[in-house]
Specification:
There is one protein chain. It is built from 5 helices and no strands. The two termini are 39 Å apart. Helices cover 55% and strands 0% of the residues.
């Protein structure tokens, strides 16, 4: 179930946890390489991740964390020198 397969929905972390017979938190810990668990549990969850083709949804994770790393700047036109300079200053500040 990879995200590039047309017509197939993307595997969720909940589905991984259910199929592996572990809690959502345990599945999350395997994904994030954190938490304490047996090697057997970690391997079981990893096998299900591989089988289902689970991939972290980075956009969802960023939204959940409240940090997307995206800044939006809406200006009527970049042909006005002031607005073009403003846009460049915002980009420079974001890169710093």
């Amino acid at each position: 179930m990879s995200e590039s397969t047309p017509g197939k929905k993307r595997a969720t972390l909940r589905e991984v946890a259910e199929e592996a017979g572990v809690s959502l938190k345990t599945a999350s810990n395997v994904i994030n390489h954190s938490g304490r668990m047996s090697d057997a549990t970690r391997e079981k969850v990893q096998n299900v991740i591989d089988k289902l083709g689970y991939r972290v949804n980075v956009a969802a994770r960023d939204l959940n964390r409240g940090r997307t790393g995206v800044i939006t700047l809406a200006v009527p036109s970049l042909t006005a020198p002031y607005l073009a300079q403003l846009a460049n200053k915002v980009i420079d500040a974001a890169r710093a």
